[in-house]
Amino acid sequence: xxxxxxxxxxxxxxxxxxxxxxxxxxxxxxxxxxxxxxxxxxxxxxxxxxxxxxxxxxxxxxxxxxxxxxxxxxxxxxxxxxxxxxxxxxxxxxxxxxxxxxxxxxxxxxxxxxxxxxxxxxxxxxxxxxxxxxxxxxxxxxxxxxxxxxxxxxxxxxxxxxxxxxxxxxxxxxxxxxxxxxxxxxxxxxxxxxxxxxxxxxxxxxxxxxxxxxxxxxxxxxxxxxxxxxxxxxxxxxxxxxx
Length: 243
Description:
The chain is built from seven helices and four strands, in the order ααβααβαβαβα. By secondary structure, the chain is an alpha+beta fold. It has two domains: about 10-190, 3-Layer(aba) Sandwich (NADH Oxidase), CATH 3.40.109; about 200-243, no CATH class.
C-alpha cells in the first residue's frame, strides 16, 4: 500500500523539517504521494470527526488553472510583504545576509510557483459555524503531511496566500462553500537541502511554574544553532549557558 519509509528517525525528522521553497521539476510519484497523505490522515482532530480533506493539484487542467491563480496571488502578496517588511533595506542590502538570502528564495518561489510539482490545499468540511478553534482539526494533519514528506526526501511550506483568490479557486476547483481552505502547501523534491532548523533557544520559550520564570532544567543539545532572532546564527550552544 505504501512506499518503504527511509531510515529517518522521528526525532531527527522533527528537528530537520523546515520550509522548502525551491523544488526540482521532478513530479512526486503517486506511491509517495499516497504514503504522505496516508500518514497525514493519521492525525487527530476535534471529536475525532476526521473532517480535514486534502485537494491535490498536480498537472491536470484544473490544477494548472488553480496554480496560475495562486501564482499571481503569491507574487502580489510577496511584493507587498517585501515592501512592508523592508527586505531590500538594512541588512537586506548585504547580499550574504539571512534577510537577503530569504528575499532571493522568496522571489524564486513566487516567480516559479506554477512549476511547483504538487500543491495541496488543506481543507475542513465544517460541521458547525466557523470558530476560533477549527484549525486545530486541520493543522495536526498538515504537520503530519510535512513530516511524512520529509521522511521520503520531499519538502514543502505551509502558506496562506490563497486567500486573495479564494473565490476564484472555489469556482475552478468546485469547492463547496461549507468547506474551509486552511492552508496551501506547495511540495516537491528540494533543490537545496533540509535542516537542521534554527530556532530560538529553549530557555527563551519555556517557563516553569509561572509566566516568565526560568525553567532551570531546560537546555538545547550541544551543537544547536539558533535563528538570527536569538544568538548569532551559527553560534553553537556552550555548556556554560545551558541553564
